[in-house]
């Protein structure tokens, strides 16, 4: 029955994609599929319905990292409540005395997506890449449904991780959700952040009160938004079961192009699939931190005055990204006596580090050169 429902809705999914575009996949298409077959949500059959497992995710990650030439170690770092954060560590003897660079991925991401950056960045200082709590191979606990409490859970997990691996201070680099958490962490633990690098950060501006007046939102989008609001962003990807891997390959071919210098097969799409069909822990937390149309419930710009002025910030945008870069200019205006640098990388979209890895790596190394 469930398989028949999925088959019947494939055409609907494809038609919706042509209207809303691939970038709204998580919040619309999968939400629609989830809505249409929610009657068959039976936890007992879901693991077998989705062709995935932790071992398959591990294999997919290993495939992503097979082209990384630098020596590195990997481990589960234990934190509170029996949780663990999956971590890659690059630390050769000639750079171990320098302030480490810590990479925080964005929503739905994982350590493997830094594959084109790890070699270059780790030649000059230690690099730590971790799967955020609730994502990737890290533990997937139950988060609070309260936005502030969920954010605090993320922040505390990073601090506990830092303490366990023994880092006194860090250069924090966060993409998307990772950028939001990097600033939140640095507000609470300012002595640990030597420099913050925000790459296409999510969650900084407040949703404009005049958005509907200035740019009217079509009725059909409002209707879809109301329909999808009860569901997790990627619920549909799990509920289409065996169709999931093929849909990722079909609907997001751009990821294959982003990593074409490393892989000619479906390595990237396989990794992205297995990352996002596990238990939706961090995904649920992220949903609870948002309001309709992807805005943050607790916009970070409203708290930038709590960040100590001596902490320098670098903000990186892609010239072809749909993300509004006005937040960068606003941060610069709000911090007139602080170091705030804004960099735009030509030819890059939202996934700057994968779209133009050489330019991105060069920009990050320039930032790191300013830190001991």
Automatic annotation (TrEMBL):
GO cellular component: lipid droplet; mitochondrion
Pfam short name (any one): Abhydrolase_1
Domain of life: Eukaryota
The EC number(s) this enzyme carries: 2.3.1.51
This protein's UniProt keywords: Acyltransferase, Cytoplasm, Differentiation, Fatty acid metabolism, Lipid biosynthesis, Lipid droplet, Lipid metabolism, Phospholipid biosynthesis, Phospholipid metabolism, Transferase
Record domain AB hydrolase-1: where: 100-355
Molecular function terms, GO-annotated: 1-acylglycerol-3-phosphate O-acyltransferase activity; carboxylic ester hydrolase activity
UniProt-annotated location(s): Cytoplasm; Lipid droplet
Entry keyword annotation includes Lipid metabolism: yes
Entry-linked InterPro entries: AB_hydrolase_1, AB_hydrolase_fold
Family: Belongs to the peptidase S33 family. ABHD4/ABHD5 subfamily.
Annotated protein name in UniProt: 1-acylglycerol-3-phosphate O-acyltransferase ABHD5
Taxonomic classification: Eukaryota, Metazoa, Chordata, Craniata, Vertebrata
């Amino acid at each position: 029955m469930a398989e028949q429902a999925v088959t019947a809705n494939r055409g609907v999914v494809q038609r919706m994609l042509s209207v809303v575009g691939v970038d709204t996949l998580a919040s619309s298409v999968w939400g629609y599929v989830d809505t249409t077959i929610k009657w068959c949500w039976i936890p007992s059959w879901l693991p077998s319905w989705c062709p995935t497992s932790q071992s398959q995710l591990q294999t997919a990650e290993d495939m992503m990292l097979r082209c990384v030439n630098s020596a590195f170690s990997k481990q589960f770092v234990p934190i509170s409540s029996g949780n663990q954060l999956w971590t890659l560590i690059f630390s050769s003897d000639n750079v171990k005395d320098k302030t480490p660079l810590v990479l925080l991925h964005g929503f739905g991401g994982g350590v493997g997506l830094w594959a084109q950056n790890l070699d270059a960045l780790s030649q000059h200082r230690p690099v730590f890449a971790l799967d955020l709590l609730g994502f990737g191979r890290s533990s997937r606990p139950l988060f609070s449904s309260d936005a502030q409490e969920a954010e605090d859970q993320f922040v505390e997990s990073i601090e506990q991780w830092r303490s366990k691996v023994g880092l006194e201070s860090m250069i924090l680099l966060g993409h998307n959700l990772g950028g939001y958490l990097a600033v939140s962490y640095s507000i609470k633990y300012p002595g640990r952040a030597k420099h913050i690098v925000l790459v296409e950060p999510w969650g900084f501006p407040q949703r404009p009160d005049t958005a509907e007046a200035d740019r009217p939102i079509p009725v059909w989008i409002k209707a879809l938004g109301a329909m999808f609001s009860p569901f997790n962003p990627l619920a549909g990807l799990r509920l289409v079961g065996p169709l999931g891997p093929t849909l990722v390959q079909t609907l997001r071919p751009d990821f294959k192009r982003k990593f074409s210098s490393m892989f000619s097969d479906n390595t990237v799409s396989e990794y992205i699939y297995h990352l996002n069909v596990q238990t939706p822990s961090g995904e649920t937390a992220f949903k609870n931190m948002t309001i309709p149309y992807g805005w943050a419930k607790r916009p970070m710009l409203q708290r930038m005055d709590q960040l100590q002025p001596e902490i320098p910030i670098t903000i990186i945008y892609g010239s072809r990204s749909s993300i509004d870069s006005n937040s960068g200019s606003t941060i610069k205006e709000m911090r007139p006596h602080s170091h705030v640098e804004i960099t735009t990388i030509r030819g890059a979209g939202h996934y700057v580090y994968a779209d133009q890895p050489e330019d991105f790596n060069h920009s990050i190394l320039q930032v790191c050169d300013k830190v001991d």
